[in-house]
User: Fold this.
Amino acid sequence: MWEDRAVSIATSAPSPVGFPEPAPSALLLLGRGVDLASERGVECVGDLPSPSDPDLVERARAARAALGDRAFILGHHYQRDEVIDFADVTGDSFKLAREAAARPDAEFVIFCGVHFMAESADILTSDTQQVILPDLAAGCSMADMAAIDQVEDAWDVLVDAGVAERTVPVTYMNSTAAIKAFTGRHGGTICTSSNAHVALRWAFDQVGGVDGTGKVLFMPDQHLGRNTAVRELGLSLEDCVVFDPRKPNGGLTTEELEAARMILWRGHCSVHGRFSERNVTDIRAAAPGVTVLVHPECKNEVVEAADMVGSTEYIIKALDAAPAGSVWAIGTELNLVRRLAAAHPDKQVHYLDSTVCFCSTMNRIDLPHLVWAMESLVAGRTVNRIVVDADDAHWARVALDQMLALPGY
Ligand code: SF4
Assistant:
């Protein structure tokens, strides 16, 4: 393990004659062309409390107490402090989904995280449990970079190139339920940032081993796929190609697909993708003796320049185990780094980037939305329930179960 080594917008106005229709944008342009199907979560039934309500914390406590054991609140490590304060358990996406599955008596699972995480919780919990996402606009830019129709089209490209039967899909937890289901239908597995190396070895073993000619289609985070293949499996950067869904045939020739071992989806995390090699150089100059610890969603050059690389849970454990007086620069989401710094006053904990870098979608879950969701449930009104359709849920579960069957689980 490497840890051990150290929306579309609907435009209502027609295009002027002679001009092409504007392409659907992945970005939501606020205030323009409202499309309730895509601009998720902007409306809250009833009153959303004001962030400046002086009774907000008291209202949260009262609603939490009223729900009692009927509700179980999950808080992702990247959530705001004001939300984490009300979480029954904190963790990364997969730990939280398993925690939800381990609470079959909880009628409501309130997921303080992002949309794909709530989907996974819905897949892993019983049909009688309701998974609630306090703000439906809490999506994930990385997960949104792989749409199911794009992935289906990409698979057709692999079929036409004659390589699909030697390709196994490996999909990161940070993906929509539809992509997880695609993975299950095509004999692949889900992985996390902790077990990506095990998942990749298993996948290659299905098609002749790491030293053979089989391939992995890794989605949606190109950086995690590349870092794992190169650092953990001994493949080279040249063994990796990037499939760009916006280009014909992914921007790749049949020869390039034939030669590749890792076909990396062109996706990335908008938070971890910001860190640069320059950040590492700068912090080494500013904080002599610093240990640079980054998440594997960072670019390969950042990972190579760092001292240690690991998942969110690994980063937390590394700080817990670090001696007093040690100096750290952490390359992951800022809410978590700030909490780590507060929890370890005997250590120097720096943020790797000099500019602020919260995950904006994670931050959409705030105390007003949590209070609104809890008070609605207390009033007998289920809001923002996340439900994965039965067929996708079945096949996504197949892919998730394959991950659970990997060594180490
Ligand atoms: S930190 Fe990155 S991968 Fe995680 S929810 Fe935010 S955008 Fe998605």
In short: The chain has 15 helices and 13 strands. Confidence is low (pLDDT under 50) at residues 3-41.
